[in-house]
Amino acid sequence: MNFFKRKKEKHLMAFTSGKILPLKEVHDEMFSNALVGEGIAIESNDGKIYSPVDGEITMIFPTKHALGIKSVHGEEILLHIGIDTVNLKGEGFTSYVENGQKVSSGDLLLEADLQLIKEKGFFTEAILCITDPKDLPLTFTSKTEVKAKEDEIITIG
Q1: Domains defined for the chain, CATH in brackets
Q2: Looking at residues 7-12, what average pLDDT do you find?
Q3: Which terminal residue of the chain, N or C, has fewer Cβ atoms less than 10 Å from its own Cβ?
Q4: Which of 8, 22, 21, 121 is nearest to 71 (CA)?
């Protein structure tokens, strides 16, 4: 036994490029009150959504505005694009993955037409929630802007 062996930290990468928003600033109480889980939001610059972790797609909403990923370390992650965008019934969203597909950190998962979403009157913030934080210590980035696939946004452990 090695009592001094440090547990390995896990990192979630920026899933889109843009301005960081604390979850409490999201325009939906389910997210802003952390009822869905702990997380972070990004006001995307380009609508491209990448996998923040290595894992498997566990769920894709038929409307393509949200999907679930189970990381290789076991964390369950929800990516949700926009507020009330379920009402668009898939319009403005293109998915590049399917349920059960293995993904690597940085893989393109979906694209959202931010202009269309705004024209239809919806907020466009992209939200990442860890839906089962299991009382794990989470450290959020102190950056105000992040670049997809390059910047760490959450450290677990």
Answers
A1: 20-156 (2.70.70.10)
A2: 80
A3: N
A4: 8
